[in-house]
Design a protein that fits this description.
By secondary structure, the protein is of the alpha/beta class. It folds into 2 domains: about 150 residues, 3-Layer(aba) Sandwich (Rossmann fold), CATH 3.40.50; about 130 residues, Response regulator (Rossmann fold). The chain is about 40% helix and about 15% strand. The protein contains 11 helices and 12 strands. The longest helix has 16 residues. Belongs to the bacterial solute-binding protein 2 family. It is found in: Cell envelope.
Length: about 350
């Protein structure tokens, strides 16, 4: 992107109205779609009548994300790379994945010095990466913030988020539907790391949704998003609760351990809802051979969406399904419930635990 082009982009970006696609949780859990509804957003026509997906000016994108120490995080980077490869006009430069905040800052400094057109960044710590992201924006580089928000909205041209509160709402609404108003139902929750805002948001959404049908969580234990932590937490939960009607487990990676504890205890009087959307969990749901009956998606496609959006912004294009001529400032992805009835739709984007 030339300096004049960047200046024009900065002027336009300053006047862009923020827009979030937020889908309210409800008992239906997902929007209705017809069979011929396109699942991939076709880009709005670019100048000259060509599709936005057709090759345009070359776009160099720097990408940085935390270490892939979790199935979901590994899928984030893999999906971003796969999406970039779909475009002949995109050159993706991937920094080494790291949980070292200072190293990630230096990676972004390197992208700035290299003069990339855009940076797609899933920060290990959003607040800590805010200043360097602002620096990139001030130098005319398009910054797309993924999953963990910066502390200043001016640090990114576009922010792509999952919906942690919505996950809880979707899980709670599904459980309400399945229990059919059973007033004395015993519902358990196996949370993630309690100190994290994302866990707090998921739990709040869950409690709020259950309240709409007169239910509440009777037993709750925190885990740590690992299989080992999930197994230990579930074992303690099952000992404390001799009877349960439903369990919501926040995370499918820790759910590997949760299922191991359930099998070891020989318990099957309840059904379980997972969280995030791993391939293993979806395959189990499809087989319908365990207590695991559903999971709530937390999209591992966020960075892939970020690659597409960065390309559109740099090339001065928009999104086809909007009248607005600019790419939105914020996009929040939906948290649908996956069951055996719709699992085939979501399996192609599932991640490996």
């Amino acid at each position: 992107m030339s300096a004049p082009t960047r200046r024009r982009w900065l002027t336009l970006a300053a006047g862009t109205v923020a827009l979030a696609f937020v889908v309210a949780g409800c008992t239906s859990n997902e929007p209705e779609e017809s069979e011929d509804t396109a699942t991939n957003t076709a880009a709005a026509p670019a100048p000259g009548g060509t599709s936005n997906d057709e090759p345009g000016d070359k776009v160099v994108i720097g990408f940085s994300a935390p270490a892939a120490d979790h199935g979901w995080m590994a899928a984030i980077t893999k999906a971003a790379q796969a999406t970039a490869e779909e475009y002949s006009d995109v050159e993706l430069r991937v920094a080494e994945a790291t949980n070292d905040t200072n190293l990630q800052i230096s990676q972004i400094e390197g992208f700035i010095n290299d003069g990339v057109d855009a940076i797609v960044l899933l920060p290990f710590d959003g607040a800590a990466l805010t200043d360097i992201a602002i620096e990139a924006m001030q130098k005319g580089i398009v910054v797309v913030n993924v999953d963990r928000e910066f502390s200043d909205p001016n640090a990114a041209r576009v922010t792509v988020l999952g919906d942690n509160y919505g996950m809880g709402v979707s899980a709670g609404s599904y459980i309400c539907d399945q229990l059919g108003g059973k007033a004395d139902a015993k519902i358990a929750e196996i949370a993630g790391i309690d100190s994290l805002p994302l866990t707090q948001d998921r739990s709040q959404g869950f409690a709020d949704a259950l309240a709409t049908c007169g239910l509440e969580v009777s037993n709750r234990v925190p885990a740590d998003f690992t299989a080992q932590g999930g197994e230990a937490a579930a074992a303690n939960l099952l000992q404390a609760a001799p009877h349960l009607d439903a369990i919501w487990n926040h995370d499918d990676d820790q759910g590997v351990g949760v299922m191991a504890a359930i099998e070891a205890a020989g318990r099957d009087e309840f059904f379980m809802v997972g969280g995030a959307g791993s391939k293993q969990v979806m395959e189990s749901i499809k087989a319908d051979d365990s207590v695991l009956k559903a999971t709530v998606i937390y999209p591992s496609t966020q960075a892939a969406d970020g690659i597409k959006l960065a390309r559109l912004v740099v090339q001065g294009k928009s999104m086809s399904d909007l009248v607005e001529v600019e790419v939105p400032r914020k996009i929040q992805l939906f948290a649908p419930v996956v069951t055996k009835d719709n699992v085939d739709r979501y399996l192609p984007t599932a991640f490996e635990s």
